[in-house]
Each structure stands twice: as C-alpha cells, then as structure tokens.
Amino acid sequence: MATNEKRDIPGTYLFDSKMAKKGYGLNKMCYSFNNQEARDEFNADPDAYCDKFNLTVAQKKAIKEKDIIAMLREGGSIYYLAKYAGLLKLNMQDIGALQTGMSVEEFKDMLVKNGRGEV
C-alpha cells in the first residue's frame, strides 16, 4: 500500500518531485557526462558548462567545491551524480562513506557485514 509518510533517515535526502524539479539542470548536466565530448567540455571550462544547464548559485558552488553531499541537498539524484563523481575518480562506496561519515574502509566493511546478515 502506498503511503505519503516521509521517513527521516539520517544522512539521506529524500528525492521527491520537489527535489527533482530543484535539481533538474544539475541532473541533466550530470547525465550529459555519459558522453566523452561533454566531459571534455566540462573539464575545459566548468563554469561555462554549468551555465549551459542553468545551475543555481548553490549548485555551482557545490560543483566548484566538489561537494557531493551539497549536490544531494540541491536536488541531485545519486544516480546522475554518480556520473559526476566518476570525473572526480570517486565510486559509490566513496559517496556512501561521505553520506555516513565513515571512512571508505569502514563503509565497505559495513556493506559486507550487512550482506552477511551480521548487522
């Protein structure tokens, strides 16, 4: 049964329709990184590339500071942000560690323990 209740999970950001609208340009830009030409254009002039997608001041700041958590707060979808994280040589475990405040090794260990049913 569907519910409209929102769950508060520490370290996470609910990606609902409001956040999708807020992050549309950011997510569209991150999706563009599927193409090498887009990655090259971004790397050549990040500010101009952000302007091309009408990013907000807060979104541009998060990009400039390479702050994945701020991008989540600004409407970024983790699925699209993973494309940007790849430009930074980060993977999903790196992002999970950032979200939880753990080291990458601690986060990976937690995943393994959860997978084994130990947690």
Automatic annotation (TrEMBL):
Stored SUPFAM superfamilies: LigA subunit of an aromatic-ring-opening dioxygenase LigAB (SSF48076)
GO molecular function: dioxygenase activity
Keywords per UniProt: Dioxygenase, Oxidoreductase
Domain Extradiol ring-cleavage dioxygenase LigAB LigA subunit: 26-111
Superkingdom assignment: Bacteria
Coiled coil: none
Keyword Hydrolase (UniProt): no
The protein's name: Protocatechuate 4,5-dioxygenase alpha subunit
UniProt source species: Marinomonas fungiae
